[in-house]
Write a structure and sequence with these properties.
The protein has about 400 residues and is α+β, with helices and mostly antiparallel strands. It has helices at about 5-45, 70, 120-135, 165-175, 180-195, 250, 260-275, 285-295, 305-315, 340-345; strands at about 80-90, 95-100, 105-115, 145-150, 155-160, 210, 220, 385. Helix content is about 35%, strand content about 10%. The longest helix is centred in the N-terminal third of the chain and has 44 residues, at about 5-45. GO terms for molecular function: ATP binding; protein serine/threonine kinase activity.
Length: about 400
């Protein structure tokens, strides 16, 4: 028979074993409750559609992040937001297409420029983007609504000018009435003075680069050959521009300033009055320069006396005496009746009102570049939307 001292430790051990067993049961019960709760949650989740805020399966528990493109890019910066209708033209630096912004059925012109980093054209792309943004400050310069890019191309969304080019206007009419020449050239004066005050020389002014917008006002376009930062007495050099519109100092490889634009302006004015250029264009610079030096200008009978006085001051061989670069052209008698304030505010009636084709009636084409993504876009700081473009309405 065991003594009392022997039985007490055994009793204590049994109580501890019972307590441990009870604890195990409680733990198992808790685990079963937790697992049951998780099963119910999973069943509920399968019954309802997954919310964008729900964590991804196997994720860290945070909401899924949208891609940088989807999160940051407003609709005007997506090529899929546009329908393309036809080609408007193709120049040295890119192709221009007629398109419509789908949510508004608003017609725009989209310039497509290939991105060629091996040829260093990123600098040219960024320059044109800057100039098109600066142009927003003048009503007679073609400006950008938006700029964006894909893997292979940079896109400039521009105003669509349904009136075509000044070249087409001259071609259709042969020569323009004096009042129309006064109107168009006065708007060009405002545009050129704005560019030059911002240190920009266009360098390729010609009728093909002057558009007539939807209301009949002119828009100088195509800044592909333009230069920036020409202020004060600074001069630049370079044989560039279009034959027939190049100033003599450009042809003779001298340094020049904004006066080269005023020479081109004079050539265009003469062409508007006569239907032809004053000097025969030539791809050979020396031959074109000889033509300018030797040819005497001829004035048709219908040309006003004021215009006969103005043209020689614009087509002045001496670049330091040329009007525009030297003196204020607005003060010339040819523009005596122009209300410059009303003109700048586009309040003067235009010579004609172009017809705007309805976007939903135009055929739609599907260019290959529409399938390009923007995942590998490389031109930093290029994408932009004009805050004054009411694309959201």
């Amino acid at each position: 028979m065991l003594s009392d001292e022997t039985s007490k430790p055994e009793s204590k051990k049994r109580k501890q074993d019972e307590k441990t067993e009870s604890s195990k049961k409680t733990g198992l019960e808790d685990l079963e409750i937790l697992q049951s709760s998780k099963r119910r949650k999973e069943q509920d989740k399968r019954k309802r559609p997954r919310s964008p805020e729900d964590p991804l399966e196997g994720g860290s528990g945070s909401a899924p992040k949208k891609s940088h493109v989807d999160e940051k890019r407003p609709a005007p910066l997506d090529i899929q937001s546009y329908k393309f209708h036809r080609e408007l033209g193709e120049g040295m630096f890119g192709q221009v297409m007629l398109a419509s912004y789908t949510s508004k059925k608003q017609l725009v012109a989209i310039k497509k420029v290939p991105k060629q980093p091996s040829k260093g054209n990123f600098t040219c792309i960024m320059k044109e983007a800057r100039l098109l943004k600066i142009a927003r400050g003048c009503p007679f310069l073609c400006h950008s609504h938006a700029t964006f890019q894909s893997e292979l191309h940079a896109f400039f969304v521009l105003e669509y000018a349904s009136g075509g080019t000044l070249y087409k206007v001259i071609e259709d009419q042969g020569s323009l009435p004096m009042k129309n020449i006064q109107f168009y050239t006065a708007e060009m004066v405002i545009a050129l003075q704005y560019l030059h005050s911002n240190g920009i020389i266009h360098r390729d002014l010609k009728p093909e680069n002057i558009l007539v917008d939807n209301n009949g006002h002119i828009k100088i376009c195509d800044f592909g050959l333009a230069v920036e930062g020409v202020f004060g007495g600074k001069k630049i050099s370079g044989l560039t521009g279009t034959p027939g519109y190049r100033a003599p100092e450009v042809l003779s490889l001298e340094k020049y300033n904004a006066g080269v634009d005023w020479w081109s302006f004079g050539v265009i004015m003469y062409e508007m009055a006569t239907g032809r250029q004053p000097f025969a264009p030539s791809l050979v610079s020396a031959q074109e320069l000889f033509e300018i030096r030797e040819k005497k200008l001829e004035y048709p009978r219908h040309m006003s006396q004021e215009m006969r006085d103005l043209l020689p001051k614009l087509l002045e061989m001496n670049k330091t005496k040329r009007l525009g670069a030297n003196g204020n052209i607005r003060e010339h008698s040819f523009y005596a009746r122009v209300n410059w304030s009303e003109l700048e505010n586009r309040k003067i009636k235009t010579p004609f009102q172009p017809k705007i084709p309805p976007a939903d009636k135009l055929p739609v084409i599907h260019p290959g570049f529409c399938a390009e993504t923007s995942k590998r876009a490389k031109v930093e700081g290029f994408s932009d939307v004009d805050s004054n473009w009411n694309w959201q309405k």
